[in-house]
Specification:
It is built from 1 helix and 5 strands. With 124 residues, it is α+β, with helices and mostly antiparallel strands. It has a 5-stranded antiparallel β-sheet, with helices on one face. Strand 1 (17-18) and strand 2 (22-26) form a beta hairpin. The chain is globular and about 40 Å long. The N and C termini lie far apart (50 Å). The mean pLDDT is 90.
Length: 124
Amino acid sequence: MTSRSVFEMVPVADRVAEADLVFAIRDANPVSPGHTLVIPKRPIASWFDATADELRDAMRLISLIKLQLDESHHPDGYNVGFNDGVAAGQTVFHAHIHVIPRFADDVADPRGGVRHAVIGRGHY
């Protein structure tokens, strides 16, 4: 018996958006209000293994999620990206893209964005 990823067990009713090859859910442990994950329906570990069609659907869904979050949460910016591999902090090995709304003053100094997750990287 093959174990299913946690994303494959998410009820369809919990999806906030969907395309043919990908779907979106709110992150169970959000770093900000509206933090959303875009996930391929096919259980691949890495976005580097995604097909061109999966990548195209993911980008379309990211754009849709942004419009939804602009309307519902009115963020001042976004961080969008994925972790690939243990060394990059990936903990769920079913590829997913984080769409993270950012808000003015949510951190003291946002310069450098995700660079602060890498030891030794500071402000410019």
